[in-house]
Design brief:
Helices cover 46% and strands 5% of the residues. It is mostly helical. Strand 1 and strand 2 (58-61) form a beta hairpin. It is elongated and about 60 Å long.
Length: 161
């Protein structure tokens, strides 16, 4: 859920000039529209997204990317951080009281969430990259690049790596 929620938020953030649809985001990431609909609903309920119903509707960020805390998103999306039974409300583990694993895992989870709390959606957004980029090779590198079907100076053993 968190993976798709983050992808959705990043996609919408990059399209800040218009509303985005579930169908286009599902197509972009090749994920289920039904699953994405649940995540969209949850993010809207949490105040991360604003949705517009009807023809021409869609979604947009409810806040600026710099105001969307990653730790808050993860806590809101993930309903259960119980990685071991003793973290649940119905613990019947026979090791309870004789095991230090719960304390170690709890500390690790707190460190994980504390780290996320120091970052926002703006921190994970990359600037848009043009679809086609022209790469200029240095003259020495350009001389070594051969077109398919030509014999290069590199031996086949070295070429295979």
């Amino acid at each position: 859920m968190t993976d798709y929620a983050m992808r959705l938020l990043m996609y919408v953030a990059h399209q800040n000039e218009r509303l985005c649809t579930i169908a286009e985001i599902a197509a972009a990431y090749q994920i289920s529209e039904a699953h994405l609909m649940k995540i969209t609903h949850q993010l809207a309920q949490g105040g991360f997204l604003e949705t517009v119903r009807g023809k021409g509707g869609g979604m947009r960020l409810a806040q600026e990317p710099a105001a969307i805390n990653l730790g808050a998103v993860v806590r809101y999306i993930e309903s259960d951080f119980a990685v071991v039974e003793c973290f649940t409300g119905h613990n019947v583990c026979s090791l309870t009281g004789h095991c230090k694993l719960a304390g170690i895992l709890s500390g690790a989870m707190n460190s994980f969430l504390d780290h996320l709390d120091r970052h926002t959606l703006a921190d994970v957004l990359q600037e848009r990259v043009p679809t086609l980029r022209t790469v200029t090779l240095a003259p020495a590198v350009a001389r070594k690049v051969k077109t398919p079907g030509t014999t290069g100076a590199t031996s086949s053993k070295r070429a295979r790596g």
